[in-house]
Write a structure and sequence with these properties.
The chain has 3 domains: about 100 residues, no CATH class; about 80 residues, no CATH class; about 170 residues, no CATH class. Helices cover about 45% and strands about 5% of the residues. It is built from 14 helices and 6 strands. Strands 1-2 form a two-stranded antiparallel sheet. Bound molecules: zinc ion (ZN) (2 copies).
Length: about 375
């Protein structure tokens, strides 16, 4: 009996789905998330168990190391739940068994699917399509989507056909998902350099998730874990800054342009618990672009940073208390980001003093005019 070989960049569940015609020949392990003995949720695509890998290896004859690489925790040893794209994350509280189970938010690149189709290859889900640290395809610098461009449905399935290899199709209108987003096609000529820059920042995040030291020309004096923690913290503090909604909207308005959202509407409100991990692809692109503008020296080199500095608006949005706390956290905040944030704090204090003086002088002038 021959089994389907996994593609090196494939997600575990995608490979298992492709093997389904052979299901009778083996006991297919469960693809659903479940709680481990400590009560924590575990998803087989993120944390496949050793016994599952061994069982699959003995059933298929494929090397355990090759199978392990299809699980995100083996591909990215530093992965944590903030960098996985979730559709739903239940609490770890054991009493709530009626909740839906932990589930991944899979996005896809229509160009990768189009290449599969043109090459007569079976369509498959790339492991990176389940990552929250990715709004763009690293191969095509092309925006990832999570819904059908024809009918807007988020449900899809791998459709087999007697004429050719399996295709990834919309479950509602049944069209192939390799069709490109017409909005993205129209935007591409103008947005391409921005997409490429953000895809480059996402590649740096993925490298950091493998434990690789970031390029010190771009992320000076920053370790892999600092780059990851800084990214998570920038998103989290921004999502929680609800008291300064006006300033936060100013920042989002700047990034929520069609080039990043691909649609006219504003992206959804970020989650206060896991802003990046639970974000839609458009919100994810906006959040990652904000982080890139603050952390990546390449962002400045692209000439995309006109107007007020992003780090200044972000610092004012989260407030000086949260900012000082972040600066003091030497494990998370690198010395480079510390310097940038201190400079932003200084500029913002100067700005506030100036506007206070302007207001005071205006009040004085009106008072003088009134008495005259
Ligand atoms: Zn692609
Ligand atoms: Zn559809």
């Amino acid at each position: 009996m021959t089994f389907v070989e996994p593609f090196p960049d494939e997600l575990l569940s995608s490979w298992l789905t492709r093997m389904r015609p052979n299901r009778n020949a083996m006991n297919e392990p469960s693809l659903r998330a479940s709680r481990n003995s400590a009560g924590h949720w575990r998803h087989p695509d993120v944390h496949p168990t050793k016994s599952m890998i061994t069982e699959l290896a003995s059933n298929t004859g494929i090397a355990p190391t090759q199978i392990a690489k299809l699980g995100l925790c083996y591909r990215y040893p530093r992965i944590n739940p903030d960098f996985v794209a979730w559709r739903y994350v239940p609490s770890d509280y054991l009493g709530r068994d009626c909740e839906p189970a932990l589930s991944l938010r899979i996005t896809w690149c229509s160009r990768c699917l189009a290449e599969d189709y043109a090459g007569g290859r079976a369509a498959y889900v790339r492991a990176d399509w389940a990552m929250a640290a990715g709004g763009f395809c690293s191969r095509h610098n092309w925006p990832l989507v999570d819904r059908c461009v024809t009918c807007g449905s988020v449900d899809w399935a791998m459709k087999r056909s007697p004429q050719g290899p399996p295709r990834m199709c919309c479950a509602r209108c049944r069209r192939g998902l390799e069709r490109a987003n017409p909005g993205a096609l129209e935007l591409e000529p103008a947005a391409h350099s921005l997409w490429k820059m953000i895809a480059g920042f996402e590649a740096a995040l993925r490298d950091a998730l493998t434990g690789k030291v970031p390029d010190q020309f771009r992320f000076n004096d920053t370790s892999a874990s600092q780059l990851l923690d800084e990214t998570s913290t920038i998103c989290l503090l921004l999502a929680r800054a609800r008291r300064r909604a006006g300033l936060r909207d100013e920042l989002f308005d700047r990034f929520a342009t069609p080039a990043l959202t691909l649609e006219d509407g504003c992206p959804d409100e970020p989650s206060c618990e896991m802003p990046l991990a639970l974000a839609s692809p458009s919100l994810r692109r906006c959040l990652i672009a904000i982080c890139a503008a603050m952390l990546d020296a390449d962002y400045g080199a692209t000439g995309l940073c006109q107007g007020k500095l992003v780090v200044d608006i972000w610092s004012r949005t989260i407030g000086s208390m949260a900012l000082k706390h972040f600066i003091q956290d030497r494990l998370t905040c690198s010395s480079t980001l510390k310097r940038k944030l201190e400079a932003a704090l200084h500029r913002n204090e100067q700005f506030e003093r100036m506007s206070y003086l302007r207001d005071a002088s205006h009040t004085y002038e009106t008072l003088f005019q009134d008495s005259a």
